[in-house]
Design a protein that fits this description.
- It is built from 7 helices and 4 strands; from the N terminus they run αααβαββααβα.
- It has about 220 residues and is of the alpha+beta class.
- β2 (about 150-155) and β3 (about 155-165) form a beta hairpin.
- The longest helix is centred in the N-terminal third of the chain and has 45 residues, at about 50-95.
- The radius of gyration is 31 Å and the shape is elongated.
- The termini are far apart.
């Protein structure tokens, strides 16, 4: 009887041990499977055509351009309210770049405003941007409406551009005709900050420049 009891206890112990490990392995399998599925999802290759990529790039680019324009316009209006056009010129000189840097971090994209008639030398267009600006100017001179543009830059990036037209008379306080829209005090401030200013003598409706937003093709595909 004693041996029989021992055998029963050993058998029961083995059964409990096997059951414990079976449950443990079952849980591990579930965890491993979940992790594996997540890894597969991350590695999933999306099959998309170029039209889908361009449409998504246009959507994302427009969102960035509109949001960026609102952010800058809001701060610029505040600067004008605080000290008029003279104060606004100083604001553009010292505050715009930090705002643009913040927007780039927010959207994970290269965001620029470029112009053939730049005030800040940093806003000069590169070769591709210059051609697009020339095309915009030609369209405007020919009486055509201006629209956003999307094109490839190499194999890994998409360039989105949006024309900037002077559609607010307030813009001429800093970009209009000296002695007419631009006061002497404002002109003195401009001259003191920008030795090679090319951004005056504009008229209402002129092409001021464009938004130039470079997006990663990889990130665009992820967003689809």
């Amino acid at each position: 009887m004693h041996n029989s009891s021992i055998i029963k206890n050993i058998t029961l112990g083995l059964l409990l041990t096997v059951a414990f490990f079976a449950c443990d392995m079952s849980n591990r399998k579930k965890v491993d499977k979940t992790g594996y599925q997540e890894e597969l999802k991350d590695r999933e290759v999306k099959v998309v055509d170029e039209a889908e990529i361009f449409n998504k790039a246009s959507e994302i680019g427009k969102e960035i351009a509109v949001s960026s324009q609102k952010a800058l316009a809001s701060q610029l209006k505040k600067a004008i309210k605080e000290g008029g056009p003279v104060h606004a010129v100083g604001f553009c000189n010292t505050r715009v770049n930090p705002i643009m840097d913040s927007l780039e971090q927010q959207y994970d994209a290269e965001i620029k405003r470029v112009s053939m008639h730049y005030r800040n030398p940093e806003d000069q267009p590169d070769g591709t941007e210059k051609k697009i600006l020339e095309a915009y100017q030609y369209s405007l001179d020919s009486g055509y409406s201006l629209s956003d543009n999307v094109q490839k830059v190499g194999s890994q990036f998409i360039l989105y551009t949006k024309p900037i037209v002077i559609d607010n008379p307030l813009c001429l306080n800093c970009h209009g005709e000296p002695g007419k829209e631009i006061t002497q005090a404002t002109m003195q401030k401009i001259d003191s900050l920008y030795a090679d200013d090319k951004a005056k003598n504009h008229k209402f409706g002129d092409l001021r420049g464009m938004w130039s937003i470079t997006l990663s093709k990889k990130e665009i595909i992820k967003a689809l």
